[in-house]
Specification:
Elements (H helix, E strand, L loop, with lengths): L11 H4 L5 E10 L12 H15 L7 E5 L2 H9 L11 E5 L5 E5 L5 E8 L3 H16 L6 E2 L3 E2 L11 E8 L1 H5 L3 H8 L4 E4 L12 E6 L7 H29 L1 H17 L5 H17 L7 H10 L2 H6 L7 H16 L6
Helix pairs in contact: 8-9, 9-10
């Protein structure tokens, strides 16, 4: 069986994402005391760490899907599934549960990184479950810790608590109402990081914005939780207000934008990922607002997920040439968005 066959599903947390707060995630990073960071380890030490961690978490990950990230194709595929970063290393072990809400990454930039992801605004739930998992792990390992700096990691941005909390926001109202600069000016004053759909250094596009906690040395994890919760609530309220303004003051312009996206998706024969994300996110917005003649939101969520480059390529067993991917994407969207389409 090909390595990607167990991942033919759309993760339930993505499929059922919230209206404005699409999903929330808690992530802990840890290193085992007495060992070098993975980038400096030789193969013997990497294997030793891998075996030690797997042995200790075997009961937790029993039944999990697992694979070794040993090619760029695999890395890009799992970046699009929101379990890796674009700067992730090769020859790392990945374990995910069947829903892909819980994942463990071994020997990437740090010995162990695990994360919990849930749909909608579940900041307190992901935080609670992640901390519960961490307490279990602390019974098995002595993690690298400094009285001065806290938990030691390969990145200074993670050193301290080794904890990061994030929320993926869907905010088309703010973008379309041209409130972006005002909101971004407000957000940059808070101790948070703004990222795109795929985290890391990804661009902000498709009306998605990821916000995550930042200074792990200066704040405790409970402080991070409260701060991000306040930011998420404020951003959600602003998005609701922006949507109401658009419906009351720019209804015709909004309807025109939706109609244009529908027409392009129905007629295009070649479509880049960025273009598909732009138009599908407009339809997702229209579905949320109750416009007639729009496919249901879960269908659109699936199409956004499977239109990403590596996932389109996986539908043809990664045998597509680069120039064929945009053709396949346009065809895939037409056939699934417009059920009565015939070529």
């Amino acid at each position: 069986m090909a390595w990607y066959e167990p991942y033919r599903i759309t993760p339930p947390w993505w499929q059922s994402q919230g209206k404005i707060v699409a999903s929330t995630r808690a992530r802990f990073t840890r290193n085992i005391e007495g060992h070098r960071f993975p980038q400096r380890m030789d193969e013997k030490e990497r294997e030793s760490i891998l075996n030690e961690i797997i042995l200790s978490i075997k009961d937790v990950v029993s039944g999990f899907k697992n694979t070794v990230i040993d090619t760029n194709i695999k890395r890009d595929f799992f970046v699009e599934r929101h379990v890796l970063s674009k700067d992730s290393q090769k020859n790392i072990a990945l374990f995910t549960d069947h829903t892909e809400e819980e994942s463990y990454l071994i020997n990437d930039r740090d010995h162990l990184r695990f994360q919990i992801t849930m749909p909608d605004n579940a900041l307190f739930d992901v935080f609670s479950l992640a901390r519960e998992r961490l307490r279990t792990l602390e019974k098995e390992f002595n993690f690298s810790y400094s009285d001065t700096f806290g938990y030691l990691t390969s990145s200074l941005t993670n050193t301290g608590t080794g904890f990061r909390l994030s929320a993926l926001m869907f905010i088309p109202g703010i973008f379309l109402a041209r409130e972006t600069e005002k909101i971004l000016a407000l957000l940059v004053k808070a101790p948070i990081v703004l990222r795109g759909l795929f985290g890391g250094h990804s661009e902000i596009k498709g009306n998605y914005l990821q916000i995550s906690t930042k200074f792990t040395l200066s704040m405790g994890i409970e402080d991070d939780l409260r701060m991000l919760d306040e930011v998420v609530k404020a951003l959600s309220e602003t998005e609701e207000k922006s949507r109401n303004i658009l419906l009351s003051e720019a209804h015709l312009e909004l309807e025109d934008r939706i109609s244009r996206s529908l027409a392009i998706l129905e007629s295009a024969r070649i479509m880049s990922y960025d273009e598909s994300l732009e138009h599908l996110s407009i339809l997702k917005f229209a579905s949320q607002l109750g416009f007639e003649g729009i496919p249901d939101e879960k269908t659109i969520n699936r199409l956004i997920f499977w239109s990403s480059p590596s996932h389109i390529a996986s539908l043809e067993d990664f045998e597509l040439k680069d120039e064929e991917i945009d053709i396949k994407r346009a065809d895939f969207i037409r056939k699934h968005l417009f059920r009565d389409y015939e070529d």
